[in-house]
Structure formats: C-alpha cells, structure tokens
C-alpha cells in the first residue's frame, strides 16, 4: 500500500513567484533590500524561519516579532498580487486519478489554513481532503513533522510514502521522515538542486507524474 | 586587453521575478494559463520570441500581432508591479571598479531603451555607458547580435570578451559570439543549467565576481 503526500505551494498550485515578490516587497517595507533569488531558494520554509534566515544572510538580527510582522505583511501583499492562484498543470487530474485508484494521498504544507482552503477550492476539491498545515504541528518544514502527521492520518508506513514537493526543504524533510522524495520543477528550483537535496526522482509537473506513475509503482492492479 | 559585456535584467538589476509575474498576468489577460516556472526559463529572450515559444508549448498558435500585444501588456503590468527595480548586490561597485581598472565594459540587453535608462539611473550610472538594446540590432537574444554589436563599440576582440548573464540564452549567444560566458545565479536559474548551456564559470552575484575577479584574469596590473 503506497501513499502520496503533496506539498502545496509550487507543487499543486502556482504561487511561488508571487510569494517571492510579496516577501521581497515586505522586506523592502521593513527597510531590508533582499535579492529575489535569495528569497526564492527559501520558499517552502515556514514564514518565521524564512525571515530569520534572510536576516542571518544580511548579517542583521531579525527579532521574532519583526519576523512575524514581515510574514503578516507578506501575506497581505500576496493577497493583492495573486488573489487566486491557479492549479499547476495536471494537479487536479492527478489527485482525482489517485482517488480512482484508491491510493491514499494528503497535503502537508508550511502554509496556514486560509491559504489551504483557497487552494483546495482552486483544485476543485472539497474539504474532506487530508491536510496538515503549520498550525497542526509543533515544528514546520524543514522539520519532518507535517509529513509524519500526514502519514499518521493516512495510516500508511513512512517507508511506503512518497513526498512530492518543489523545494529542497521538502526533500530534506522527506529524508528525515524516512520517505522517498519526488521533486517537481514547478517551483522553479532546478533538477540538480533537488537531486542534491535527496530527491529520488524528478518530474516536470503533476501531469508528468500522472503520465509516468508506473515508475513509482503506481499502477492499476 | 579584456572586456566585460553585461546582460541587464537579472544580472545587474533585480527584475526577473517581477517580469515572470507580469508575463503570467499578461498571458492570463490574453486567455492563456501559463505556469510561472515555464515563463521563468524563457526570461532573457526578446519579448516576441518569448510569447511565440510559450504559444508553441501550449500547442496554440500565437500571431506576431498577438505576441506584440502580450509584450506591451507585460510592460505595463511590470511598471505597476516593480516601478523601480533595485540593483543586485555588488553591481554598481563592480562597474565602478572596472572603470577604475580601465577595463572596458558594456551592457547588452533584450530590453528596450526606456527600461535601460531606468536601470542605469538605479545603478547610479550616467548615460555615457556603452549600451546595446534590442532596437539597435536586427536579431535579439538568443542570436548573438547584441553581444557582437557591443564588442564592436568597445573595440575589443570577441575572444577577449566575457559575457556576464543570468540566462541560458546569454550563455548560448556568448558561445555563438565566440566569447566566454560567465553565469550569475541572481536570475534564479540554477548553476547546472547555466553550465550545461556553456557557462565557463558561475558566480552567485556581481559582488562575488568582484571578489574573485582574479579568476578571470582581472587584476590590477
């Protein structure tokens, strides 16, 4: 019995680039000039961690309060920049196919509940999907907690779970959770970086996973 | 005698992520859903080519008129999203250092004159920099014409020119121009992709080029 655990932003919905710009504008408003590519490589971390990591890179200490304010402002700008993120090619079809095949799947994200609900609607999913978000666990990505909590809800052994994600943090957390990581390129992080972070396989997007799912042993039995 | 020819967007100024989002919004307004990462990998192409390439990827024919309209709308949205792009770390200092060292340099871009003027101001440069943009040549990137025209104005042999760019198109055009390509990661394209496209060396950003310029033989003699 296999299961798939999906990251959300950049994996199922097309929101990474807007997140990058929203973070950059939030930092600028906080008096910090941060290059966009440096933010891009930290997307997938929970907001607080991202803000602290950027602070360290700038050699400037960012307090927890300041990080929270940066994250909150990033959320508000994100809502203006991209109020309705689109699903990535093949995402809705892949989830539908897995249901047809009776393959359990869930979503595990560093995002918050409100973003998840919006994303589920854009994917045409009702609220009965198995979703773990940052408020459900003590430690968000790159800690493996969201994947482990999702596995528990699905009631599948870790070694039988694939984690599908676009960020090196997904691959790191998957490895720590004892799961195989499947990288997708839809978040704009390159193939080599994902493989170096421990990805077992790389696909372009969810549509390619669907087309080549036999490579993962996902065949109608 | 060595010379450096710089790409502009994503190499000297931090504008790639905003360009991606502006293109995506322009395509959406034209009735085309295009994943952001697919646009990201085409940034650096001249607008018309980018629009035609996306059309081919979607299996949808895009006319030259339609491509022009998409590009024009992308420019308008870009102006709203990021009216004043910031220089990338070390960009202004590197150009200043090259002047001090009497190393000739120029800028060669797929962008248009108005974007260039705004960028020169943000870099603190007067208008006396050597700049070649798309309207100065018959064929924009990935054709090598902008680099060859820049070389001619600098009056340096092609084999003595380094092209500094963030896109695989810069590396391709550099190789075709008989120049060595230097990749920077500031446009968000990964190290391996730039090397596979023919980069001779990779640096994080202009600040790292400045710090390691001895690797390029750029030493005060």
* Low-confidence residue ranges of chain A: none
**The CATH homologous superfamily of the largest domain in chain A:** HAD superfamily/HAD-like
Number of folding domains of chain A? 2
Tally of strands of chain A: 6
What is the CA-based Rg of chain A, rounded?
Answer: 17 Å
One letter per element, helices H and strands E, the order of chain A comes to: EHHHHHEHEHEHEHEH
Features:
Rossmann fold, homodimer, 10 helices, 221 residues, alpha/beta, DNA polymerase, domain 1
Care to describe what's here?
Chain A has 221 residues and is α/β, with parallel strands linked by helices. Chain A has two domains: 142 residues, HAD superfamily/HAD-like (Rossmann fold, 3-Layer(aba) Sandwich), CATH 3.40.50.1000; 66 residues, Orthogonal Bundle (DNA polymerase, domain 1). Chain A has ten helices and six strands. In chain A, strands 3-2-1-4-5-6 form a six-stranded parallel sheet, sandwiched between helices. The longest helix of chain A is centred in the N-terminal third of the chain and has 18 residues. Chain A starts with a strand and ends in a 10-residue tail after the last helix. At the A-B interface, helix 1, helix 2 and helix 9 of A face helix 1, helix 2 and helix 9 of B.
């Amino acid at each position: 019995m296999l299961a798939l655990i999906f990251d959300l932003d950049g994996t199922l919905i097309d929101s990474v680039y807007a997140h990058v710009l929203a973070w950059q504008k939030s930092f600028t408003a906080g008096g910090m000039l941060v290059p966009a590519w440096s933010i891009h490589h930290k997307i997938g971390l929970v907001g607080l961690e991202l803000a602290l990591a950027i602070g360290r890179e700038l050699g400037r200490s960012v307090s927890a309060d300041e990080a929270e304010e940066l994250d909150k402002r990033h959320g508000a700008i994100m809502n203006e920049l991209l109020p309705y993120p689109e699903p990535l090619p093949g995402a809705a079809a892949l989830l539908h196919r897995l249901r047809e095949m009776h393959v359990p799947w869930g979503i595990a994200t560093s995002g918050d509940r409100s973003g998840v609900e919006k994303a589920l609607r854009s994917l045409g999913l009702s609220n009965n999907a198995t979703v773990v978000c940052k408020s459900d666990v003590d430690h968000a990505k790159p800690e493996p907690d969201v994947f482990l909590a999702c596995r528990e809800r699905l009631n599948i052994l870790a070694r039988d779970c694939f984690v599908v994600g676009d960020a090196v943090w997904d691959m790191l957390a998957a490895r720590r959770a004892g799961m195989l990581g499947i990288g997708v390129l839809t978040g704009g992080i390159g193939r080599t970086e994902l493989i170096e972070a421990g990805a077992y396989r790389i696909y372009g997007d969810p549509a390619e996973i669907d087309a080549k799912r036999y490579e993962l042993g996902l065949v109608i039995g």
